[in-house]
Amino acid sequence: MKKSVFILWCVLMYNTTYAQRFDFGKVSEEEIKEEVHPIDPEASAAVLYKKATLKMEYNDTWLYVYEVEARIKIYKNEGFDKATVRVPIYQVGVGSNEIFSNFKAFTYTLQNGKIEKEKIGNDAIFDEDYNEFWRYKKFTFPNVKEGAVLEYTYKITSPYINGLPEFYFQEDIPVNFAEYTLKIPEYLGYKSYSKGFFQLQREESREVNQFTFSYVPKLRAGTSALGSHKTQNSTVNYTLLTTKYTANNVPKLVAEEYVNNIDNYLTSIRHELEAVKMPNSEVKTYAQNWEDVVKTIYKYDRFGKELAQKNYFEAELNPLLEGVNSNLEKAIIIFEFVKNKMSWNTNNGYFTNDGVKTAYKNRTGNVAEINLMLTAMLRYAGLTANPVLVSTKSNGIPLFPTRNGFNYVVSAIELPEGALLLDATNTYSSPNILPERALNWFGRLMRSDETSEEVNLMPTKLSRKVINMDIKLNENGSIEGKIRNTLTDHLALQFRNQYTEVEEKTYIDQLQNQFISLDIEAYSIQNQKDAYKPIVESYTFTKSNAYDKIGDKIYFNLLFFLATLKNPFTAESREYPIDFKYPTSNSYTISITIPDGYLVESIPESAALQLPDGLGKYGFMISQTGNSIQLRVTSDVNFTMVPALYYDALKQYFKAIVEKETEKIVLVKL
């Protein structure tokens, strides 16, 4: 009891201390000497504090000024990556970029019992491009060692008040204290969007301020327009709303199995402009809907104009379409033509860089050039085709109507048989089998009439893995057999992406290591480069010391090297959805021939498992005829994304699978 009270007192004192320690440049000796994090002893680094203040300034137009400071503690070598900081800067053209200023950064260490302070110069800041909208200001702290404390501050001045910076209260290291303060005048209305699971504290206060602005007065009915164009100045009182968000002792966000992008769950907050109401002016609304987003994007030359381009592909495309009447057949011909013609340069974005004509000529381009080109060709052939905006898994999930939340584009065709999603950047993709990077919740289909609709990007069709295996047990402890493995849809795409360019010998070596000293011979593969057919691989194998023999008894696992040995879900609880990437169906049919002179003494029982609400099912069916044992194992996961509320059920389900598949059969010698 006394120990618990003492720990609670330490935590409370720790919170109070850090809530007061906000003076930039005043790093204490205690902070440098601290060897482990008080709450998370395994942490390699921690944010001692981070805070940001955002305020508005008016000079003919509104600007926001965003000031940030942070202090980081390095405990272990594994935390050295925190010595590199990237600050995102929004850019859309020359002369209209955000301004990065007031930069200061220092490394603090102890040398001979004294605090040494090393400054980072401005010449240590580098620009790093991310995409057409964003670049990074990147800097790395010098002289970083275990125990060092790093501190930095900077200011961003931006005219882009429609979207305010996203502030992260959580990271992959502990955050002792975080604070975000916004000072917004009453003339600007913002809507906040938060994500993550950590509860923030929120405080609001109001005060009256003054500012002077310029305006053109409105005419009254019946008055002369003479001089009405003159700008007038006015000084007014206004209410300043201050909102402060704080968080204490935010735990590090730990990556778990089956999470598509852990950063999607970092606790953060951002604000989008809803309306502006200046004195003596009408209300101007900015709350966008999807139609506004579509209309804006289509107006950009590097999107709408490029999509409308023709007269560069007809000469090659027309002969391929001659005599073809089926829309589905036309779609596949065009899709394959673009895949074979073009090479993706790995650049994302829904705007073209060099343009579709140049990309077509050079046979290479970014994702927009390739898939807008594809969409244009499909339309040329008379199909109802439209681009679909996508945010890749690494880019996050757009939570509201926005053009900046997307960084990718695919093509969609509306056919009587249903909609087809196409991505020609991947040689081995096929209709409705998108690359994994694009399987991120929902996309936005954009029509030329400025309407749009949500498109589910998550696969619903089961990708199948079917294994047929014949095994013979030899009395010397070895086994021999043959396998036929069939993969369809996304499982086949994953295989092709991973192994098609790998030498066969290298792949076989990997397979032998995966199955622990399996000797593989007579390997063959079918349809490796045909995206419309399943992958089929076959081989024979032998394995020494494949089972246990004690006295006159033999013990072995019925699935041998195919058994599930580890439960992927071991944590006590889980907050994040479980992402299986795509629905799957695994089916193993195994025939085992036991040695002559042996009979079965004990054998695992057949079993069936069910997940709630049709999420999945498992079957383990066994039978014996003479010296042959037949086993059929099926395992289906019917959904891509499973809510965290099913975590306990999944945990118990996979625990039962591991227990069943590690049970042994016992043979006894006659």
For the structure shown, list the relevant keywords.
Jelly Rolls, alpha+beta, 670 residues, C8orf32 fold, 36 strands, Immunoglobulin-like
Describe this structure in words.
This protein is α+β, with helices and mostly antiparallel strands. It has three domains: 2-216 and 231-285, Immunoglobulin-like; 290-456, Roll (C8orf32 fold), CATH 3.10.620; 463-669, Jelly Rolls (Sandwich). Helices cover 18% and strands 40% of the residues. It has eleven helices and 36 strands. The strands form eight sheets. It has an eight-stranded mixed sheet. It has an eight-stranded mixed sheet with strand order 25-26-24-23-30-34-33-32. Strands 20-19-18-21-22 form a five-stranded antiparallel sheet. Strand 6 and strand 7 form a beta hairpin. The chain is globular and about 105 Å long. The model is unreliable at 1-20 (pLDDT under 50).
Query: Helix proportion of residues, in percent?
Result: 10-25%
Q: Which topology of the largest domain does CATH recognise?
A: Immunoglobulin-like
The count of DSSP E runs of length 2 or more, i.e. the number of strands, is 36
Overall pLDDT score: 92
SS-based class: alpha+beta
Number of helices: 11
**Rg, Å, rounded:** 31 Å
Shape: globular
Physical arrangement of strands within the biggest beta sheet: 5-4-8-2-1-10-13-12
Number of domain modules:
3
Low-confidence stretches: 1-20
The CATH class assignment of the largest domain is: Mainly Beta
Instruction: Note the quaternary state here.
Output: single chain
What is the second-level CATH architecture of the largest domain?
A: Sandwich
In percent terms, what proportion of residues is strand?
35-45%
Distance between the termini: 63 Å
The main β sheet shows up as: 8 strands, mixed
